[in-house]
Amino acid sequence: MLGAWLVVLLSAILHEPVFTAPFSVAPTVIAFVVVLAAIVTAAFGVVHQAEALAKILGDPYGTLVLTLSVVVVEVILISSVMLGPAESATIARDSLFAVMMIILNAVMGLACLLGGLRHGHQPYNRQGSASYLVMIIALTSLALILPGLLGSSDGTLGTVQAIGLATISALLYAFFLFLQTTRHRDLYVEVETPGPAQTEPTTTTARPRAIIAVRSVLVLATVTPIVLLSHDLAILLDVGIEALGAPPVLSGILIAMIVFTPEAVTAVRAALSGEMQRTINLGLGAFVSTLGLTIPAVLVIGLLTGSSVVLAESPANMLLIGVTLVLSVVSFTSPRTNALLGAVHLAVFAMFVVTVFTP
After folding, report:
1. Concatenated DSSP letters of 299-347
2. If you average pLDDT over residues 275-301, what whole number do you get?
3. What tens digit of pLDDT does each residue of 291-331 get?
4. With 0-12 CB in 10 A as exposed, 13-18 as middle and 19+ as buried, what is 218?
5. In whole angstroms, what is the distance from residue 108 CA to residue 114 CA?
6. Cβ-count burial of 73 within 10 angstroms (0-12 exposed, 13-18 middle, 19+ buried)?
7. b/e per residue, 163-202, with b = 16+ CB within 10 A?
8. Phi, psi of 120, deg, nearest 5
9. In this predicted model, what pLDDT tens digit does every residue of 81-130 receive, in sequence order?
10. Residue 227's closest CA among 9, 4, 53, 67?
11. Do 82 and 300 contact (CB within 8 A), yes or no?
C-alpha cells in the first residue's frame, strides 16, 4: 500500500503543477485534500519504518529514531511555510506551541486516561521523565517566553540573541542525547523489565545489520514525498486560511497534527498495552526533540535567508504554557500515572482549542 502511494506521488511530482493566483475554490480544495492525504500517508510510512527500527534497536535508541524522524518532517513543513509566498514569520512559534498543547496535553492526557482506565495506576521511570521535563522547561522558557519579555516591538530576536539561542539549544540537546544513549540509558527503559533492557546493548553484533540498513533507506524514501510536496502544502494552507478567514495559527496546528498523529497513535497504543515508559519516551521525548531541533533550525534559516522569526507568545498563551508545565511536572514525577491526571490534561487542551477560535 505504501509503495503504491510512493509511486503515485513521485509520478505526480514529475508533472507537478505550478500554483498561481487567482485560485478557484474547487480545484484548490481538491488539490489540498490530495496533497494533505499524500503527506499524511507518507508520515505514517515514516513512523511505520521507524517503529520497525525501534523494535530492532530497543530503547532508548528505538524511540529516539522514531521521534527524530517525526521531528525532521516537522522542520521540513515549518521551513516550507516560513519561506512560502506568505512568508509566515510566526509559523515556528505557532507550531511549537501547538505541538506542546497536542503532545503534553492531548496525547499524554489521552494516554494517561485510557491507560489508567484499563490498568489503573501505571508505573514508569521517574528519573527518566524528570530529565525530559527539565529539558522541556528550559527550552520552552527560552524559546517561547523569554522573547516576549526582552522588549522587542515585533517579538523577534536580535542577531546575537538568535545565534545565542540556536547555539544553546543545539548544544544542550546534543548533550542530552549523549547522556540518554550512554551512561543514562537505564532511565528510559520499562521498570518491569530491567534485565533484558540492560543486556541488550551488548548484542550489537547479532543485530540484523542488513535489515537496519534497509529500514533506514525506507525511512528516507518515505520522507522524500513530504519534502517534495511540502512547498505545495504551504501555498495551499496560505490560500485556504485566507479564503476561510481562519486564524493564522491554524497553519501551525495543522502542521503539528499532520506530523504527530502517527506517533500519537503509537504512544496511546503503548499506554493501553501497559508500557507507560514507552509512552513517556514517545511523548515527552518527541517534544524535547522538537524543541532541540526546530528552534536552531528555524533560527538559522531565518538568519541565512533574512526572514523574520517571531517567537514571542501572547500573555494568554504564556499562561497556558505555564499551566501545562506545572501539570506535567506533577503528572510525570508522581510515582504512577492515573486516569484523573489524564482528564486534567485533556481539559487544558480543550481550553486551548477554545482560545484558538475565540482569541
Report:
1. HHHHHHHT---B-PPPHHHHHHHHHHHHHHHHHTTSSEE-HHHHHHHHH
2. 89
3. 998 899 899 988 998 888 889 888 999 999 999 999 999 99
4. buried
5. 10
6. buried
7. eebbebbbebbeebbeebeeeebebbbbeeeeeebeebee
8. 80, -135
9. 777 665 678 888 888 998 899 999 999 999 999 999 988 888 888 888 99
10. 9
11. no
Beta bridge partners, 156, equal: 310
Give me the phi and psi of 156, to 5 degrees please.
Answer: -95, 165
Owner of C-alpha cell 503527506:
39
Other Cβ atoms closer than 10 A to 286: 28
Q: Which amino acid, one-letter code, is at 89?
A: A
The torsion region of residue 356 among left (phi > 0), alpha (psi -120 to 50) and beta comes to alpha
Of 17, 28, 22, the residue nearest 240 (C-alpha): 28
Contact 222, 2 (CB under 8 A): yes
pTM of the model: 0.79
Q: How far are the Cα atoms of 29, 150, 206 from residue 229, in angstroms, in the given order?
A: 16, 37, 38
